[in-house]
Amino acid sequence: MITEALLLSAGIWLSLALLVLSFLVTVARVIRGPTLGDRVVALDMLVGIAIGFIAVIAIKTGFTLYIDVAIALGLVGFLATVALARFILARGAAGAEGEGAAMRGEDAGERPENRSKMKQERKA
């Protein structure tokens, strides 16, 4: 017979395993990129995964203060994402690589084929 405690324990371990898997995939996206926008979205996802970890640990331990920590982390993560988005927009507007690159989520300097194209444009 499946008891409530056994079902809760299985759910906690399953959710922790899925969170670890999503954490690893997201870290790979942060490292791989290819654009700055991809990295910002992946970092925002890491904040969400951390909130998930905190929530699961709060359920496992029964210590409800962790929920307040998760809410605070969500607010800080949101502000960090907004700040990074503003940085990308300012970088795209101030840079001479091309207008609208930041709006399209592209970072022209990161791709090798764009570097040679940019050098050719500067020579012309």
TrEMBL record:
Region feature (Disordered):
95-124
Instruction: Report the GO molecular function annotations.
Output: sodium:proton antiporter activity
Q: Where is the composition biased (Basic and acidic residues)?
A: 104-124
Q: Where in the cell is it found?
A: Cell membrane
Keywords tagged on the record: Cell membrane, Membrane, Transmembrane, Transmembrane helix, Transport
Q: Which residues cross the membrane?
A: 6-28, 40-59, 65-89
Tell me yes or no: is Membrane among this UniProt entry's keywords: yes
Q: Under the cellular component aspect of Gene Ontology, which terms does the record hold?
A: plasma membrane
Membrane topology designation = Multi-pass membrane protein
The main location is membrane
Instruction: Please name the InterPro entries in this protein's record.
Output: MrpF/PhaF-like
Tell me if Lyase is a UniProt keyword of this record: no
Q: Name one Pfam family in it.
A: MrpF_PhaF
Into which family does the record put it?
Belongs to the CPA3 antiporters (TC 2.A.63) subunit F family.
PANTHER family registered for this protein in UniProt: NA(+)/H(+) ANTIPORTER SUBUNIT F1, NA(+)_H(+) ANTIPORTER SUBUNIT F
Task: Identify this protein by name.
Answer: Cation:proton antiporter
